[in-house]
């Protein structure tokens, strides 16, 4: 028997309660950082949503641009009943399409799911992957994801045990 059908689409503002539902178990287990509704509404255009055959959202993920050539995959979460059905793969693939459309060549993630991201071409990193000049600009950001990317001390309690990973997108031109 094959996997159940699902589709992946751009998120709608009305998806915010579903995103909260999807991320809640991961927030409770300290795998993802919680987000207020206002932050999700403000960033809804960054999200893709996977929808099951009955129209219910079953997964989500976002792409947050950091700089001219680097973005972060964040808030990638699935309904547990849909894990290992290709939903995470399709969401990540969609976010990578979005990155290419924006001219982004590198994607960062901070994750506990090292095997999943490794299978998709992400490699563990330790050092900074931006120039000192870009670092100086990024360090002024108030975004927690940027602080995690820069490995700033103020976010260390939230990132313990996570692995910093990066994928260089293949040039399709």
UniProtKB/TrEMBL annotation:
Gene Ontology MF, one: N-acetyltransferase activity
Cellular component terms per the entry's GO annotation: cytoplasm
Assigned keywords, A-Z: Acyltransferase, Transferase
Keyword set includes Transferase: yes
Source organism superkingdom: Bacteria
TM annotation in the entry: none
Residue ranges of domain N-acetyltransferase in the record: 6-153
Protein name per UniProt: N-acetylglutamate synthase
Species the sequence originates in: Frondihabitans australicus
């Amino acid at each position: 028997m094959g996997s159940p059908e699902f589709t992946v689409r751009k998120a709608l503002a009305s998806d915010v309660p579903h995103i909260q539902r999807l991320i809640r178990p991961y927030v409770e287990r300290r795998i993802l950082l919680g987000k207020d509704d206002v932050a999700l509404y403000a960033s809804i255009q960054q999200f893709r949503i996977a929808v099951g055959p009955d129209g219910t959202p079953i997964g989500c993920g976002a792409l947050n641009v950091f700089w001219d050539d680097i973005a972060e995959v964040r808030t990638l979460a699935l309904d547990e009943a849909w894990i290992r059905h290709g939903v995470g793969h399709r969401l990540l693939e969609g976010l990578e399409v979005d990155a290419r459309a924006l001219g982004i060549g590198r994607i960062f993630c901070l994750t506990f799911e090292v095997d999943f991201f490794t299978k998709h071409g992400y490699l563990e990193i330790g050092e900074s992957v931006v120039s000192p000049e870009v670092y100086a600009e990024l360090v002024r950001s108030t975004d927690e994801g940027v602080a995690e990317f820069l490995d700033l001390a103020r976010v260390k309690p939230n990132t313990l045990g996570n692995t910093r990973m990066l994928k260089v997108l293949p040039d399709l031109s």
